[in-house]
Amino acid sequence: MAVSRSVSRSVKQQIADELREQVLNGTRAEGTKLPSEAELIEQYGVARNTVRDALALLVNEGLIEARRPHGYFVRDRRRMQYRPQSDLRARPTTAPHDTFLTEQEQAGRTPSQTIEVSIVDPPEPIKERLQLKADELAVVRRRLRYLDGELIYSNDSYYPLSIVQGTPIMSPHDLSPGANQTLADGGHVQVRAIDEIYVRMPTPDEAKRLDLTPGTPVAEHIITGYDQDDRPVRSVLNILPGNRHVIIYERDGLEPPDGESA
Amino acid sequence: MAVSRSVSRSVKQQIADELREQVLNGTRAEGTKLPSEAELIEQYGVARNTVRDALALLVNEGLIEARRPHGYFVRDRRRMQYRPQSDLRARPTTAPHDTFLTEQEQAGRTPSQTIEVSIVDPPEPIKERLQLKADELAVVRRRLRYLDGELIYSNDSYYPLSIVQGTPIMSPHDLSPGANQTLADGGHVQVRAIDEIYVRMPTPDEAKRLDLTPGTPVAEHIITGYDQDDRPVRSVLNILPGNRHVIIYERDGLEPPDGESA
DNA sequence: CAGTGGTCTAGACCACACC
DNA sequence: GTGTGGTCTAGACCACTGG
Question: Whole-number Å distance, CA B5 to C1' C13?
Answer without folding.
Answer: 14
